[in-house]
């Protein structure tokens, strides 16, 4: 091959240009200066506001924020890892395309690389990359704002490419490719997706090992494995800071083990079982891989004038114009699957499912069994609570699995394995050949299987239909609540079932048509009536049309707005503005007008009792469940009646946990002044007594029975800090708050005798250091979540500084690893270029 042979490079250039074009075409509003509205990104702006502001003002990383859940590390919210040089590589790999087109381009590019490594024809690889990239879930997560998840998904395929290349004996190239893309995968910082990638790799390793033993290639296998372990070690080194602090921090989050013995049946060594399996894909719902709206589509999908619900409204004397409006706003959902709600289905494409089934007949050997195995694993795990025997095994015995929630996310494995095997099958057909008669037979088998199944759904759409009884009961009650008579509400729900079945039938017919078209194209090619180039063009066109329009159902131009609208994600309310007038730099706010513990807006303006985060501190979550939520219910019960100032004050005085958390303001109406709590205990105070408790259960449940202004609860594990200490009454003892930064707090104290001070700050064992007059001092935990320390007599300066050493050590390792990795990649490129030149 000549280095200037343009014909060789032509398909690759066409592929890159096509990937760019399709990425921009789908998101063409970005070329008009618009931006995609992403719910999770908006919430991120609320969560990270204090962190971002501090970083911009000081140039430092605070590594802690007090604006949500009363205080927590910023590790999993917003931290810059400046020494990970792969951050800069990641920016350029997306070619500077506007967001989110850059992520879709990575989807394309990564799968294209994997298919090329598998020696699939470049033109067919382009089609395969398009099939993978346009999987519906990959666009749904972009609409939701799951950017880190999207990036991690995009890098899964090229990591596999590097591993496969290494096991083929291309050690240097394979190691460089693996290390490079694994570093980017880790840099994406979505460990759940990376964990699923690890499962795929483990299964690949098992089949590769079996093949090596069978073909007496164990030495080569072990050598490749050793090379890959070194590559992985190097990739991990580039992102070691994040991995290190995440591993350290996870022990203290909801993903770590709990000390409580309450509700032990539901607990694992990580998250609770019900929390992990909340979003479990339905067994029947899995047909969405083949039929996009098999389960109704997105929860937010609305009906139109061609619906049975519309007909029922008109039949019940509701004017047509009003019925048009009603049918789009009714508190009902066409989605009938078992998940609490969904933004859309996991649809890999009817055509791709057809080729996947065809590949099961055509492809032989380890790749088929590997990809089939991980596809089945993906489905079994995604079923979650609908296949609890299998789920419990993984939760109890597979390391790390119980650290992640939303088991439906395991479907990303199938979204990679299904199109991959489908393309390997097509490559076998077009490149290697399977024999005309054999191919005719396999095509028929595949059509009979899928065509027969789809015909069954078209004729009997209710065959697997089973509405979510709880959800439908809720919708019925909501219809009655908004004023519909019970008989009409029942009629609407019956009509809704008919609409759901109609949607299923129409999408089943749609899938059947696309399968017949693809079947026809390959049948004609096999019969010699259609050239391969036209066959590939037709297949690519059919896949494009199928996937493009399904994705448009869940992400359309309506999801884009002018950039200026996103610059101010939250508008302060009257209540917010009143609170912002308070010049006290450190107090907390309870917002009762939102979902308190699923809210980022309050954190954007204030230090919130609540917040929005998937990995809050485990102790704080337990405090929410057992103490804060009951206190909130007690408060709202009083406020929803006919409260008087006296009754409100009695209620506020009886909220020990909210008071010890220094809840100074309570928002009960966003358009009026907040309720000021005179019983908030402030930033710090001296207690007159302390009480030792034997375990976490006792400490947590006893909080409701104490006055935290007078008494502190101390776990017996911290007894040594109070050895030989006795509190002496001191009527003039004072402690005052001086300066605030998220990672640096200053106080001044004046006492006549040694005193026990309680600080309304969340205790975190790794990173916070206390100082008295500049000298390190001991502090410990009280009241389940707060900090305390003994203050000696006299006048003193007290400080808390958050400086976790693992962050700074990790950054040194990250820089060294990044440099070595870049040298490795450049070395591999140079070696490959020199070899190509010599061959030329």
Give a quick set of tags describing it.
single chain, 840 residues, alpha+beta, five-stranded antiparallel beta sheet, four-stranded antiparallel beta sheet, 55% helix, globular
The oligomeric state of the chains shown is: single chain
| Beta-strand content bin | 5-15%
Number of strands: 18
Helix content: 40-55%
Give the neighbour order of strands across the main sheet: 11-12-18-14-15
The N- and C-terminal alpha carbons lie at a distance of 5 Å
> What is the count of helical runs?
31
Q: What best-fitting shape do the alpha-carbon axes yield?
A: globular
- Structural class by secondary-structure content: alpha+beta
Overall pLDDT confidence: 92
Question: Uncertain regions: pLDDT < 50 for 5+ in a row?
Answer: none
Radius of gyration: 30 Å
> What does the largest sheet look like?
5 strands, antiparallel
Please give a structural write-up.
With 840 residues, the protein is an alpha+beta fold. Among the domains are: 39-78 and 570-682, no CATH class; 684-803, no CATH class. It is 55% helix and 10% strand. It has a five-stranded antiparallel sheet with strand order 11-12-18-14-15, with no helix packed on it. It has a four-stranded antiparallel sheet with strand order 8-13-17-16, with no helix packed on it. A three-stranded mixed sheet has the order 5-6-7. The termini are close together.
